[in-house]
Write a structure and sequence with these properties.
The chain is 50% helix and 11% strand. The chain has 412 residues and is an alpha/beta fold. It folds into two domains: 20-193 and 357-402, 3-Layer(aba) Sandwich (Glycerol-3-phosphate (1)-acyltransferase); 208-350, no CATH class. Strands 1, 2, 3, 4, 5, 6, 7 and 8 form an eight-stranded mixed β-sheet that branches.
């Protein structure tokens, strides 16, 4: 079972004050070495960077909001920083600071500061608000909160980004009515430029070997992916339900996720909730994590708590298989979606991605959206963040439509 939390008390990690490391990193594009080695990204293009430059020159507090489809995103934003010749601050989940000594050192040096996603982190929120209120540096936030591996699909935003931006806007307006905070949505679009057949064959053969099922090299590609995906799903069904469900693949995913989530919600909230599975799963973590992280449980209780966390993580994994993602209604299937499906399967089965990857990353800066100084409406989705999400999704849709299409040989 993978480690899903850091089992020690949270401590806020601020960004480093010195600028030498971040200057060297941007000057010599050092982040590209990591992106090439770890994520297979070998080409980069930044579009419309002058929009951020205009906002900097206008003296605005600036929030950069991107879709979060890959682990590469936080490091890849360095391409935008270099293009606009400005350093950024970035909000990063606390667990990233606890991976190894290099990450603990590098993230703060590059402008990253921690956020505790298992509760209200007032220190991190105050730091972010002050950065914007003073227009000290642009602030990078990925509101989806976790990596989706769905480059064409934007998941619901977590709360917090709108609150930070609106609070900073109020502070700036109190100081001077002409001072503004703006949000620039940034589209991350990864375009595969490697050997598609080599990558898919490698991944499928690996997955079949780890699932201990016969190799089906004679099947059409999408049919073979369905075969592998169904094998992994069957393992989970047996584990949680004791049997393999009947029905279509995506219906089985939804039923399994719902079953696991209902069990956990009954246990932790006393009743089944409604709405998006990912948001519901993440809402359970603040109830589960604190006692475990603070060492307040005995070993038997800690073991049970880790299993509960594993279960809701499984719900999130299942939810990141969008039902129409590789069976698009219009028949247009970008090749990247197939590769994302295989990466998702590898990650869920092996806890890592090994598929041979060669990508070009396009970072497209969208128009500034002015942040209102007023508080968001109560008990409603923030219209500001809805506008940001709509702008991102509309641009992602355009990129998807012009992407190279795979001619489907079956249906998933």
């Amino acid at each position: 079972m993978q480690d899903l939390i850091i089992e020690k008390p949270y401590r806020f990690v601020p960004p480093a004050k010195g600028k030498l490391v971040i200057w060297l990193t941007c000057k010599f594009s050092l982040f590209r070495y990591w992106l090439r080695r770890a994520e297979g990204i070998i080409e980069f293009e930044v579009i419309n960077a002058e929009k951020i430059v205009d906002s900097i020159r206008a003296g605005h507090g600036i929030v950069l909001v991107g879709n979060h489809c890959r682990n590469a995103d936080p490091m890849a934003i360095g391409e935008v920083a270099k293009a606009v010749d400005c350093y950024f601050y970035s909000m990063a989940s606390w667990h990233l600071f606890n991976q190894d000594w290099f990450m603990r050192w590098a993230i703060p040096q590059l402008g990253g500061f921690s956020i505790n996603r298992e509760g209200v982190d007032r220190t991190a929120l105050d730091f972010a608000i002050n950065v914007l209120a003073k227009a000290e540096r642009p602030l990078v936030i990925f509101p989806e909160g976790s990596v989706s591996r769905s480059n064409d699909y934007l998941y619901p935003f977590l709360g917090g980004t709108g609150f930070i931006a609106r609070t900073a806007a109020r502070r700036r307006k109190k100081r001077d009515a002409n001072l503004k905070v703006v949000i620039h949505p940034i589209v991350f679009r990864y375009q595969f430029i490697g050997d598609f057949e080599e990558a898919t064959e490698y991944s499928l053969t690996l997955l079949e070997s780890h699932l201990d099922v016969p190799v089906k090299a004679d099947l059409p590609l999408l049919e073979r992916i369905r075969y592998v995906a169904s094998g992994l799903l069957a393992q989970r069904e047996k584990s949680y339900l004791g049997h393999v469900q009947a029905g279509e693949y995506y219906d089985r995913i939804m039923k399994l996720a719902q079953s696991i989530l209902e069990t956990q919600e009954q246990k932790w909230k006393g009743e089944v909730q409604q709405g998006d599975f990912v948001a519901r799963a993440k809402a359970l973590r603040p109830l589960m994590v604190p006692d475990l992280a603070n060492g307040l449980l005995d070993e038997e209780e800690a073991k049970e708590r880790r299993q509960d966390l594993f279960d809701i993580n499984t719900v999130q994994q299942l939810s990141y298989y969008p039902v129409d993602y590789i069976v698009p209604a219009d028949g247009h299937l970008p090749r990247e979606r197939i590769l994302e499906m295989l990466e998702r399967l590898e990650e869920d089965l092996l806890d890592k991605v090994t598929i041979p990857r060669r990508y070009k990353l396009v970072l497209d800066v969208l128009d500034a959206i002015e942040v209102p100084a007023e508080k968001a409406p109560r008990n409603e989705d923030d219209p500001l963040m809805q506008e940001v999400a709509s702008a991102l999704q509309a641009s992602l849709d355009v990129y998807s439509q012009v992407a190279e299409s795979y001619v489907a040989d079956s249906t998933m």
